[in-house]
Queue: 2 jobs
Job 1
Amino acid sequence: MSPSDQIPPGGEDPEALASMRSMFGPDVTFLGVPRADKRRREDLESADVVVVGAPFDSGTSYRSGARFGPLAIRTGDAQPAVPRRPHLTLGIDPFAALRVVDIGDVLMPPGDIERSHANLREVVARVVAAEAIPVVLGGDHSIAYADISGVADVLGFGKVGVLHFDAHPDTWDTEFGSLYGHGTPMRRLIESGAVSGEQFVQIGLRGYWPDPRLQEWMHHQKMTWFEMATISTRGLDDCLSHAFSILLAGANAVFVSIDIDVVDPAFAPGTGVPEVGGLTSRQLLDAVRRAGLELPVVGAEVVEVSPPYDAAGTITAYLANRVVLEMLSGIARRRASSE
Amino acid sequence: MSPSDQIPPGGEDPEALASMRSMFGPDVTFLGVPRADKRRREDLESADVVVVGAPFDSGTSYRSGARFGPLAIRTGDAQPAVPRRPHLTLGIDPFAALRVVDIGDVLMPPGDIERSHANLREVVARVVAAEAIPVVLGGDHSIAYADISGVADVLGFGKVGVLHFDAHPDTWDTEFGSLYGHGTPMRRLIESGAVSGEQFVQIGLRGYWPDPRLQEWMHHQKMTWFEMATISTRGLDDCLSHAFSILLAGANAVFVSIDIDVVDPAFAPGTGVPEVGGLTSRQLLDAVRRAGLELPVVGAEVVEVSPPYDAAGTITAYLANRVVLEMLSGIARRRASSE
Amino acid sequence: MSPSDQIPPGGEDPEALASMRSMFGPDVTFLGVPRADKRRREDLESADVVVVGAPFDSGTSYRSGARFGPLAIRTGDAQPAVPRRPHLTLGIDPFAALRVVDIGDVLMPPGDIERSHANLREVVARVVAAEAIPVVLGGDHSIAYADISGVADVLGFGKVGVLHFDAHPDTWDTEFGSLYGHGTPMRRLIESGAVSGEQFVQIGLRGYWPDPRLQEWMHHQKMTWFEMATISTRGLDDCLSHAFSILLAGANAVFVSIDIDVVDPAFAPGTGVPEVGGLTSRQLLDAVRRAGLELPVVGAEVVEVSPPYDAAGTITAYLANRVVLEMLSGIARRRASSE
Amino acid sequence: MSPSDQIPPGGEDPEALASMRSMFGPDVTFLGVPRADKRRREDLESADVVVVGAPFDSGTSYRSGARFGPLAIRTGDAQPAVPRRPHLTLGIDPFAALRVVDIGDVLMPPGDIERSHANLREVVARVVAAEAIPVVLGGDHSIAYADISGVADVLGFGKVGVLHFDAHPDTWDTEFGSLYGHGTPMRRLIESGAVSGEQFVQIGLRGYWPDPRLQEWMHHQKMTWFEMATISTRGLDDCLSHAFSILLAGANAVFVSIDIDVVDPAFAPGTGVPEVGGLTSRQLLDAVRRAGLELPVVGAEVVEVSPPYDAAGTITAYLANRVVLEMLSGIARRRASSE
Amino acid sequence: MSPSDQIPPGGEDPEALASMRSMFGPDVTFLGVPRADKRRREDLESADVVVVGAPFDSGTSYRSGARFGPLAIRTGDAQPAVPRRPHLTLGIDPFAALRVVDIGDVLMPPGDIERSHANLREVVARVVAAEAIPVVLGGDHSIAYADISGVADVLGFGKVGVLHFDAHPDTWDTEFGSLYGHGTPMRRLIESGAVSGEQFVQIGLRGYWPDPRLQEWMHHQKMTWFEMATISTRGLDDCLSHAFSILLAGANAVFVSIDIDVVDPAFAPGTGVPEVGGLTSRQLLDAVRRAGLELPVVGAEVVEVSPPYDAAGTITAYLANRVVLEMLSGIARRRASSE
Amino acid sequence: MSPSDQIPPGGEDPEALASMRSMFGPDVTFLGVPRADKRRREDLESADVVVVGAPFDSGTSYRSGARFGPLAIRTGDAQPAVPRRPHLTLGIDPFAALRVVDIGDVLMPPGDIERSHANLREVVARVVAAEAIPVVLGGDHSIAYADISGVADVLGFGKVGVLHFDAHPDTWDTEFGSLYGHGTPMRRLIESGAVSGEQFVQIGLRGYWPDPRLQEWMHHQKMTWFEMATISTRGLDDCLSHAFSILLAGANAVFVSIDIDVVDPAFAPGTGVPEVGGLTSRQLLDAVRRAGLELPVVGAEVVEVSPPYDAAGTITAYLANRVVLEMLSGIARRRASSE
């Protein structure tokens, strides 16, 4: 471990800034997978999946704390930090089947959302250009704009569908008068053309927004959404099948964006804008595994884990850790089956 | 904000006592709805729904803390304290469709349950007399005796049915040798004639009481109850349909009493007498919305939220806040449809 | 353990009410001292010190929870519940030197402060009549009125001095319009003549009350108080010497009332009305031991421990437990020295 | 309460060690049932069910704290510590129908797992020899080896089936290089011949182990397991029926081992190795009650409750308390029906 | 309360943004003082002291959460939210002696530190221009740059001394490569000429920075600092007298900047960058009161209260509330004495 | 990071056991110092100070959890994990002045205290033999027996003095009938001859043991102790001077054993056997620095940090981290001065 592993916040050394690997807390990788250097192309090209930390919480409109999300998700496991996780149901170990590496955190200065997003977008694009799958650990949901734009920068605007698990649509026009924040990324993605509304499917909405004007805009963009009341009535599996058919009809590439607040706060109290009445943890795990198995996933993000609010044994971070594992296991199984 | 907004506990000024609006903590209204004066008849008459704080926890037989329930429920939301909450499923904003006001807290001295109940009963009766719907934020469940008696004082004894969500039947004869407490209100209501046992339906009972003698009394009163084991087998929707048919057969007016402990403590840890094995938060939200839509609701209460035990992001208060919103939205939709 | 050890709150059996020993939680004694029956005179007469539980929190003007104080203080120790506690500095084991028994909790229905106080006052008087020293575990500070009146009922009105550790003077005239509460007991005691203001000394006052009118009343009663700013300047030992000289001049008997909020909330977060800037735990322990050693103590109470707010390892309950031990050790040493 | 109720950890008195009843914290019985002496044969013979505390957490491979499990489970109830618990659904009070006693904790020195297990095994065997049913409150799951071996010592090796609720199979070969730990007990039981793999059924497995080699061993032993994905698809009731038919085919006696981590950490955060995506509390309660009703239960254990991680109102301990009650109620109903 | 009291984060209405009074949570004033409108000059001119909320936490280099500081400090009191706080030692009620108003929160979008600072600086300058004293409730310490620059904008660059309580000097050159953050404000203030290093005095430094290079810069600027080791040796009162003499020699106006982490985390756990070994709460209270009494205070700020980390009864917010009160009381006493 | 960084608890691979570096949680070094291999002699010989993790909590007689102490102490800092910590008062950076490395955790199976101690003792001896100073991060205090015996194995029995900060003397004869535990290590050390009682000095004792018999034994061994009451009266600095003179008279080598419970639980709630009335954090920091500066330190340990009980921002781990830094800084300064 060299002195530049973690960034000295007050350091004046540009090289230290460029090489740092952890913004907050000790420098560890996701469940102990090998470290890669985000600046070395060969490191990225030799990987199937690249874990990226996005420790940013200045996009949140309420509770902050998601800056500690990447650390909590990387270490959120009672089992040893050794990359061996045989999947019971799928009969595959994602770390044996896929080359998974972790490039550490992207430099995201809290007070400068535009620079932070630009840094992240560039890293994600570099990963996609190396033909690896970026799995981004947030951070608040504002990073979706950077993550998905970064994918679209390489694969083409309008070429990527989005499967979006969330309690909220995140389609506000502005947030506190700013264009960027965790309530606006999906609007920015559609307005910029990075993603078409027709290839945008949302799962798990509930609560008391968007308001009618916003719903109208979403309808106008031909977005599709399944609210919790619908999921209760139709069943989650049926809704997912419907959602997948929409995505598979329009896109050869799908990005999966998972806001942990899609599950009920009983299962995920450690989040910034909790909304009661959500999915169970089991429903989310099964849904994410199915997405990995059935969709052409080109990238994913798990966002809005806020450790300071994660009482009761850090169960939110544990859930997010398993969400990543289910995604990786699904992808691994799909690849193994198609070979 | 005048100096009499919150009561000075040690003040000797009777006027300050009469005009105070908050017993514990800052003086705020439910999600920012307009303030009304509980002493001004015109304030009440110009409202459709009146929110009432009942910050009382001296009726509890175990954990106290529910005195902070009204404050926690009023502010239990990550969204701004601005009364705009468009309901996604029902397509209506209860604050646009209904005139909702908040009259603050009733004066309820902790050590004097009889005076506390009398104060509350009088306020509730005044609201009902003004043809508004009282929505009372508890406080422990002992207040049900005051709330429902206050409604019956205006609408007539034996004229109001009660839909009661709870883990416990609350039909003890006495509590610590006293007639009043959170274990006895339903007994007092039936014995006084305010409510007939035939119009009393309980949802969600579980655990290890009442004992056989008490069950016998309940049967004798012709009360109906659906315990969790039954709900598991028959399904909640079927049980609710059955319950609603009983209530609609016997009463033109229904009071809905919601003890937050009807949900499992995973979803509502912040309560005085937790009992495992309860409803999910989604089940309760759907049930309450249905009650608002299908029943002639003349009043409601949400009780037993105990903030000091509400770890993990105050999720119990958040749930109670949404329970109120689902009730208001259901009522708004029903009114809009019947116009 | 018989079925009547703990009171069944909903039981209809008067005998069970009379014989119950624990209102909330399991039936245990202070550090495992022998159980005594509060109704048997010989049990009391054979004791030097009688521990009494007063699990009452309906007198508090803010945070409740002190009803769990007696249980938390009785068990607040990492060492075994075996009554052996050799005092390092004094060279005496209070449980070897004194016959200490525990009579369990007094029945104090939360919603009825007058009946609760009456029950407690009667028990305390019975203990004093048996020539034992009552050590009452609160509960909120409203019980001081019952505790000290009970002592005065036997030893005579105006015959007992009071040494009062507290952040607050507790001399309000009324609380929420009621005469009884945790802000008023010292006023009631002086007005009733149970204690003379001249024999009333307060240690540790700070914060922003009493207001001038109240201070005037206190001066008029010839009460003495030492606020924290004075203690900082003069030193605690000097203030205590001054305080003791006042008490010893006027009374042959002293009751020591210890509100745990006299220490800073860093040392005692689990309390109902925390006020920053207080004593350290070490200062309180040394002061209480000195009181036991130097004053003719006829009774004591430790109040306002509120377990639901006692995060971080229940350190408030641990402190209260040691406050009792220091008092017992001081008394034991004084007796041993005078024999 | 005599001085030997709780063990003085540093005492040199062998008699005190032999007679102690509580290793950590105050000496209380399960919900106030009568105390029995583990050394007196007549005490055990006069009982139908004997509650045994196994306060041991040195077998855990991750979070410790389960040593406080017995205390937390015994007192995990908002209702009084009086042994009256009429079961609503089954119409029976287990404490009226069965003679249930509590013998307190077994002496289990934390640093010596072999001696600890030997002490426990001997006590369990003594209970079974007295024809009573031991219900052991853990402690970590390493105690399963002692508990079930103790039963087999009396009823015969290979004569007892095991119904095992858990997120993990606990069939590791070694743990930190040791044969004994909470990851290995089921392996030891099968290898020693105490239980046959054919009579071993596991419910609730999930997560990312065992690895293929371990699965192969389990298959080779003819063990049966139902993982959560299967339970989601087939339904828990169907899986249980299948499991019970296996057990009833091969054994006249069944031991039920319940690791509280079989439920989702939302319902049971207070545990040593939490794994998301588990059963709900209601599912576990219904399953355990069914086991009591339908199987010839000769012993049971509830393990892995770790109070220091049980935030949010100690809901894990409450759940474990009810798991015991459902088991007792099921057994009581089965006995009553067969008489 | 109008719909624009709290800002709707996703609102598109510029007027709502301009008139909003609370960024996060309900709209309340400091202990219930009257509300003033930050846009109305007469509101400011009629006040002696103006409380300003600066709910910003995107300047922090570690734990966030200080955005909830203003709400927590405004309501951090067990006494009623009525502006009456008679000071025991000084014999004055600051709310009677001074006209104190609260203008609510300044709009500070989390992801845009430059715009946030600009908004705050303008408001502070407006308050000073109206000849009132701004008391700013943070927020993280990055706001010091805005607060003190705003004062200097009116009173003149180089005309204001700074008394700075903190564990850290906050004189980094950059933070995560940015000029603005909570580690850099004092550097920016001196470099911009707003404050001269000679009039900059720091109290309470400890820990393991600044490094030698930074110390050299600070010496070069002629800054003065008293570290905790010095304070232990010389005594706090002596250090303060020394500090005050420096400030009074060079400036007719002093701004007091209080980072709550100057006290030990035992007294203030709820902060972003805790450093052990600090002042006690009593030391800080006495020091701040002395500053109000002895210095020509033209503005003050209390920063780095981070409620999500404020376990154990929110004692950090309570302390910060009293720090404001001591400052106000000292100022009031000084004014009264000089009249 | 290789697969053997953290031990797989259920692994059967002896090589993995031998090479593992972290028993619980991710593999990190103390504040980012370089990693060394405990098996390579040259790694140890090239270091001045070697940090050793001893994640063992099976020696505790009450609350467990100290197994997570090493991880919490290594990462207990808000500043980056980069080994640069310039000491403000001493004007030296210990990481610049000393070669400090971290060899990770020793393998200590929880259920086997004798093997665990043997493993630790061997590692400590190896470090001392390499002429480096071991700094051991506990773990419970039972490890003192292994740590100090390991030092004595190399430097000679009776050649090393011990400076022992603690609330308790840890001189029990047995614990739960076992010779080894956190209450007995000092007895074992003296009985075995590793340390002479004359060179054993204890600072900070308080509470209610040892009992007279134990005190007699301690006196007989010529041990010296300073209890808190003495420290209050004489002052800590005077007591330390006295203690140091005893140690310097009898030994050329001193081991410093710091039980974090020597400070008051307000400053260190996260510990296994809290005892109120202790030192402040500042007192401990100053004392440890002085020990490093004035004594010939050959080894040190910081024990009894129990993270699950470390609420309120993990302040206990932060304190322990600084205790290590003060010790290192004192040693560095002493070496620099003597060169």
Job 2
Amino acid sequence: MTTTVGARTMRALAKTRPEPGAELIERQVPTPGPGEVLLKMVAASICGTDYHLYSWDTWASEIVKPPVVLGHELAGVVAATGSGVTRVKEGDLVGVESHIVDWTCAQCRAGNMHNGLDPAIVALQEPMGNAVHAAFVEPIEGRSVAITGCGPIGLCSVGIARAAGASLVVATDTEPYRLQLAREMGADLALDARNPDTVRSVLDATGGDGVDAVLEMSGAGPALTQALEFVTRGGRISLLGIFPEPVSVDLSDMVIQRGIRLYGIYGRRIYDSWERTQALLRSGRFDPTPILTHRFDLADWERGFELIASRHAGKVVLIP
Amino acid sequence: MTTTVGARTMRALAKTRPEPGAELIERQVPTPGPGEVLLKMVAASICGTDYHLYSWDTWASEIVKPPVVLGHELAGVVAATGSGVTRVKEGDLVGVESHIVDWTCAQCRAGNMHNGLDPAIVALQEPMGNAVHAAFVEPIEGRSVAITGCGPIGLCSVGIARAAGASLVVATDTEPYRLQLAREMGADLALDARNPDTVRSVLDATGGDGVDAVLEMSGAGPALTQALEFVTRGGRISLLGIFPEPVSVDLSDMVIQRGIRLYGIYGRRIYDSWERTQALLRSGRFDPTPILTHRFDLADWERGFELIASRHAGKVVLIP
Amino acid sequence: MTTTVGARTMRALAKTRPEPGAELIERQVPTPGPGEVLLKMVAASICGTDYHLYSWDTWASEIVKPPVVLGHELAGVVAATGSGVTRVKEGDLVGVESHIVDWTCAQCRAGNMHNGLDPAIVALQEPMGNAVHAAFVEPIEGRSVAITGCGPIGLCSVGIARAAGASLVVATDTEPYRLQLAREMGADLALDARNPDTVRSVLDATGGDGVDAVLEMSGAGPALTQALEFVTRGGRISLLGIFPEPVSVDLSDMVIQRGIRLYGIYGRRIYDSWERTQALLRSGRFDPTPILTHRFDLADWERGFELIASRHAGKVVLIP
Amino acid sequence: MTTTVGARTMRALAKTRPEPGAELIERQVPTPGPGEVLLKMVAASICGTDYHLYSWDTWASEIVKPPVVLGHELAGVVAATGSGVTRVKEGDLVGVESHIVDWTCAQCRAGNMHNGLDPAIVALQEPMGNAVHAAFVEPIEGRSVAITGCGPIGLCSVGIARAAGASLVVATDTEPYRLQLAREMGADLALDARNPDTVRSVLDATGGDGVDAVLEMSGAGPALTQALEFVTRGGRISLLGIFPEPVSVDLSDMVIQRGIRLYGIYGRRIYDSWERTQALLRSGRFDPTPILTHRFDLADWERGFELIASRHAGKVVLIP
């Protein structure tokens, strides 16, 4: 690792100007201060947030002020540690938790347990954590579960639900490529949401009752409408996909009189759930490998963003 | 009780024609069949459903086919029992549970424990059960709670929340008469929802955080909007009031990113909760007496319906 | 089915005298009264309770007054129905729930869904229900679980835990034959409890932490001692095995200071859990077939009891 | 505060030698390092642990190596802050959390909210936290609760249970002085545990059912035996009192077949519960004042320890 610390510069994929696009730049390698850790990246996956910044849509342009370096789904090896760092040491492979809420350095706490895993899987810590949080707000063991929306978080949810003992796992999306990935992740049923029989098919698969739980990962109004129609009386819907605008909901008929519970899921982690996911990963019962559809050298980053735009990709991983 | 059974006819308040109004009629006293119980009414309170039938609004005219007898919030004394009835005996004071889901005759199970209570309170079993169900889907002990809507169920909720150890009980309504009743039921703060400072006042009362739980009892869109604004990040809203039409909800900003849980509450009972309410009633920590604002002889039923229309009543009880 | 109803007598395995043993007798075929159902048995499995009665130990001799007919783990086909029976009809295959708590005829409610299952599995409804109840008092999805005691209920628990998404399933017993069945039911690790390294092995398999949950199915003091040693700090133990006498427990060091939860599990069913097990059975994720080690004609009943005495059997099924 | 920081020495009650007793000594006032806070004590209450050290019993002599300064139930005013301290400032009144589990400085987080409370109540943070943790592992709103053992933590539990909406609060102890304090804290029933009718009285007060929850705060074998007898079928017992030796428990009859849940409660805090207690304190619904039976100048510390030995004290507070 000495040579890494000695290196003067490193590459970074950056948003340098307030317009569409990104740029590969050279940056100084920093020296870690007290309590800080210098990581040498080994894998970074492209998040939807990165894509928003790349395409510079309204949301991105309102929130972000260039220049910024892209990338927060990361696996790295500890290259140097500042004073006071005791939980990780040089050479440890760690994932990164970007929602830092206090000084406990959560990413470091979990660090050592990653050794031996594919770094691309380690980089997936954030979407896996989101999926786990959405799935586990209530037990899913022995329940029937539908996942609406098969982006990377939705696909992780399919695998988590399967590993966590769901009796039936249904996935819906409008993109056949993604539905195929859902099948590879263990969905018993992968349904094209544009098909007018979708709700009927879910009801049929559950003896007419509907599913016990829906994990809404699409942020699409029609998906929520379907979810409310095929969730069982007394069931629950976890809402994680971000809807671009307010949604009209028939609260009386579809929520209140059917005793439905709606959970707003925000990205912060519940460590207990995260530890259980680690246990499932280690045991081999949950394997996100099929989601990792593409790996490119960092220099080929633009191909990765184009693939995401085409919706013909699971997760795109960049190898520095 | 012999005389009761011997009586040939009884009075009944009935909806006889598909138009506004109601009528006091004479009916034959029935003989209880196997597993059935004949009750001699001692108190009946007017439910919102009764008022819908009386005023014959769209909802009522679509659901109900006259002739029907009004009234389902009832306290009665067992006057005769059919064969096979073992859980109650003549002379027992019982409340009635109108949502019969199986043969277990839930109303009778609870029957004996009512002896000694004011029959008007026994008649309140249904709205109290609704309030309990809405309140107890999550613990409220030590939490701050707001009740939006101070009809009889909302007023019961104020008292239940207070008795169940809420650290702060806020009530909102647009009718000062009802806010005064909320204060009598134990609200720490009773706020006119039309006041533009309402949300601000709730936030101030909770150190800026907002309340841990909202019990939505109004079915009014503006009340839900306020609830979403003054519920704390990570809090929950129980939805019981029926909204007359679909509601537009900003799911992303107000529900998902704030980690809110929405519970559709439908009227079925959780016996565990009901038994706890009985315990609170018996201990005197929950006392619905202030809600019972008016008692009339059955012959004066029309005054009761007029009072409800004026919104200057809590619960109106008719004494047969 | 007509011929069945027409039959005058039927065979029954009965405890006729207050001494060890049992006897195959002839009994009149009864006529079902109002609300009753006549079942023609197709499979009956021998329960531990039956074995207690057969061997006439202290427990049995204090509780039971002969003559009684043995057997309560039953699958049967509805042969005739009394008046008022609407939920099942002639020809339905049903399992039997012997803990009747009210008039809702729980066994019949579940009846129709058994059609198509192996009747021997239907007869297992009771031990499966026990296993489910013990397992699901807290979530087990993604948790590490140990089952101490691999009799039929313990073996069901192994399969349920595996199907319900446990990240690790450990089984312990003192009988190698049973440990082999545990492996067939999906245990990741099946350990001879007599081995002095047993606790060490469980700790090693969990990175030194111990298991999140123990399902105690043996009723053996040394098994509980091991359970308290290999359950993780903050973990839980479900107690279902009946201990023949009071047990000395180091509450302070092993329970209080380690934050352990102990759940006494009694046999009544939680229908929600039962329905989830049905769903797991239907989906094929839980398959109790390996537990059904022996099937005999009813006439050979004594061989079944001898096998149970030898502890070289899973579940013994008698076919009338 | 300048003068405080300027002071060269301060008094401290210390255990200086491995034998019974304690000693008031002079110590240098330290200078807070990075992330540290210097507190000027305003109140300190004597904990059972302090008494163990004072009397130098087996437990104390095995765990502690003199010299050590006594006292960990503390309220103090921030007198100086080290570099990097941002959450508190000079003049803030704070309580102290002695179970430090990470770097998040939990004691400081809660600091500001104490302003305005009696410092003696602030010093009670630890026993109140223990009581809350034991009480709130399951909801107690609307439940009947018994507290066995009326030392300071038990007395806090009585008040917490009362404030949190328990429908009935029973307290047991063997010391009439403490039972009187339990009544002042809101117990509906305070029973001398030596009375042979104690179990009978608790059953009578609950209509024969027994209490829904027991909070075991005594660490006395006979109290646990009574608890198992008067807890209702399906109820729960929180175990917090430390038993000096292993206890023989009839698991089969008293725990398993009655479906009882036993929770080992260890002292770590659940911040959610702690925040709810703060809310109850602020609202005035929980007021621990009656527990604070004695206040002495620090110089009179020995009288405090003698009072605790006599069991004729609630909490003894020393004012530096």
